[in-house]
Amino acid sequence: MSEATTPTIEDFRATVRSWLAEHVPPRDPDEPFLQWDDDGVARDRAIQRALWDGGIAGVNVPVAYGGLGFPNAYQQVFREEAADYRMPENFGNAFNVVLPTLLAHGSEELKLEFIPRLLNGDHIWCQFLSEPSGGSDLAGLLTRAERDGDTWRLNGAKIWTTGGNYSDYAICLARTNPEVPKHAGLTMFVVPMDTPGLTVVPLTLLDGTVDFCQEYIDDVVIPAHYVVGDVNDGWRVATTLMMNERTAVGRGWSLGGRKGESEEKGIELNLELLGLARHLGRDQDPAVRSLIGESWVLNAVQAQTVKRVSAAMATGDLPGHAAAILKAMSGATSPRLGEITLAIAGPTAAAWSPDDHNRWGFRRLSSHGIGGGTTEMQRNAISERLLGLPREPSQDRELPFNQLRQNTIPGQRT
pLDDT tens digits for 22-41? Predict the structure, then answer.
């Protein structure tokens, strides 16, 4: 298929449906969504390569960069048809965040160098944003980049990097001018993960996974052209990145979507909690039935919110900052759904057999509102960017960054 011979959307759906059934394994509910180990990463690379070889990778990516160049509606069709299959979810950062950011701000040289190798499964990407010294104040980061002839030299530290230990490249925000207000002196870079001076330390979480990492950046040298956007204009690039991330988190991070997302098929009920209640003999308990009903309402409202806001953003009726609505909705419903799960599961949420993939208690631990930015950040974005309410007074947006008080030394290992 090519841009010059765009099929009808019905023919495209039939092609994708047939190809996936023949070449991609079905989704296994016993498998973790993200499997950051040698087997999981190798499998996801192979699946992405198969999509590339099959001619259905990068559905809405321009042909010049290896994609099909089809309208966004075709990408939505792919997501729907892929719902029942194992998608290469370890490429989530690459496709949900990095790819659209490169398309929006990357130079032609960077697009040609990196996008095809993302589409063919060669490159897994991660994000170097958060730092040990700061929480939600991304613009207050301390990692610095200094121009050194035909290169940039980076020093600092990053943390909470999903898949950092298996990624090939990172998109990294660093400070390039400390003599201007903090938002004005940032630049976005491409950093190869095998660059000398970059140390990746996996962090073992409570559930035993090691997909979160911390990085120490000690005199990491990268080519001068590995800049996404313009020098000292990194906050604009980061804003695009964060809007893409919020949209993906609110919509659903999976590279496969839900069946019938683009169609009006009424409200589809998730029967998982009802099945749990029946297994525990609690399905006739009025309190439990009320909780199950609440979960159905929350899921239905969130699904409709995603559909309406996404459609309004696509037509231009809502600006890109409306992605904060999606993330705020997800940040509000996810913890509550986790609480409902705990209440229904009872003691089974605290202990389980090794072969039980449900692990209801860990579902509550993972039902947070932090990924993609805290719910408080989304509410600020909604009030200021969408509703036009005044910003809270703050001197740190006006003073040069090097005049602001810091609670740590740049590059200090914590």
Answer: 999 999 877 888 899 999 99
Q: Rounded to two decimals, what is the model's pTM?
A: 0.86
In the predicted model, is pLDDT for residue 295 greater than 60?
A: yes
Work out the average pLDDT over 162-190: 97
CA distances, 243 to each of 288, 322, 337 (Å): 37, 8, 24
Measured from the Cβ of residue 390, the count of other Cβ atoms closer than 10 Å reads 7
For 361-403, write each residue's pLDDT tens digit.
Answer: 776 666 666 777 788 888 888 998 899 999 887 777 788 998 8
The mean pLDDT value for 251-269 works out to 71
pLDDT higher than 80, residue 412: no
What HEC string does the chain produce? Answer: CCHHHCCCHHHHHHHHHHHHHHHCCECCCCCCCCCCCHHHHHHHHHHHHHHHHCCCCCCCCCHHHCCCCCCHHHHHHHHHHHHHECCCHHHHHHHHHHHHHHHHHCCHHHHHHHHHHHHCCCCCEEEECCECCECCCHHHCCCEEEEECCEEEEEEEEEEEECCCCCCEEEEEEECCCCCECCCCEEEEEEECCCCCEEEEEECCCCCCCCEEEEEEEEEEEECCCEECCCCCHHHHHHHHHHHHHHHHHHCCCCCCCCCCCCCCCCCCCCHHHHHHHHCCCCCCHHHHHHHHHHHHHHHHHHHHHHHHHHHHHHCCCCHHHHHHHHHHHHHHHHHHHHHHHHHHHHHHCCCCCCCCCCHHHHHHHCCCCCCCCHHHHHHHHHHHHCCCCCCCCHHHCCEHHHCCCCCCCCCCC
Q: Amino acid letter at 175?
A: R
Closest of 337, 318, 316, 317 to residue 326, by C-alpha: 318
Torsion of CA 226, 110, 76, 3, to 10 degrees: 180
Q: Are 67 and 61 in contact (CB under 8 A)?
A: yes
